[in-house]
Amino acid sequence: MTSVRLLPRVALHEISKAFAGAPALRGVDFDVLPGEIHALCGENGAGKSTLMNVLGGVIRPDHGKIEIDGRDVIFRGPADALEQGVAVIHQELSLVPCLTVAENLYLGHEPRLGPWIRRNVMFRKADAILERLGFKVSSRAKVANLPIGTRQLVEIAKALSWAAKVLVLDEPTAALSRAEVERLFEALADLKKQHIAIVYISHHLDEVNEIADRVTVLRDGRRVGTWLARDLGTDRLIQQMLGQEVAIAEKSMRPQEESSICWRVTEARTDTLNGVDLSVRTGEIVGLTGLAGAGHEQLASCAFGSEHLTSGRMGLLGEPYQPNHPRHAITRGVASVPGDRRRSGLIPTLDIADNLTLSILDQAQRRFFLDRTAMRTLAKRWCDTFEVARKSLTQGILTLSGGNQQKVLMARWVATSPKFLILNDPTRGIDVKTRESIHQRVEALAEAGLGVLLVTSDTQELVRLADRVVVLREGRVAAELGRLGISEETIVAAMIGAGA
Amino acid sequence: MNRQMAQKLAARLPQILLAVVALVLMARTDRFFTPTTLGSILKLASIVGVLAAGQTFALIGGGFDLSQGAALGLVAAATAWLSTQGVPAPALVVFALGLGAFLGSINGVFVATARTNAFVTTLSTLLIFRGTTFALLNGHPIANVRVFRLLDEGLTLGTTLVAWRSVVFLSFVGIAWVILRRTVFGQHLYATGGNAEAARLAGIRTSYVKVASFALSGMSAGLAAVLLLSWVRLAKPDTGTGYELDAIAACVVGGVSLQGGAGSVIGAAFGCLLLQSLGTLITMSRFPDEYRNLVTGAVILTFAATDALARRSDRR
Ligand SMILES: Nc1ncnc2c1ncn2[C@@H]1O[C@H](COP(=O)(O)OP(=O)(O)OP(=O)(O)O)[C@@H](O)[C@H]1O
Ligand SMILES: [Mg+2]
Question: Does ipTM exceed 0.90?
Answer without folding.
Answer: no
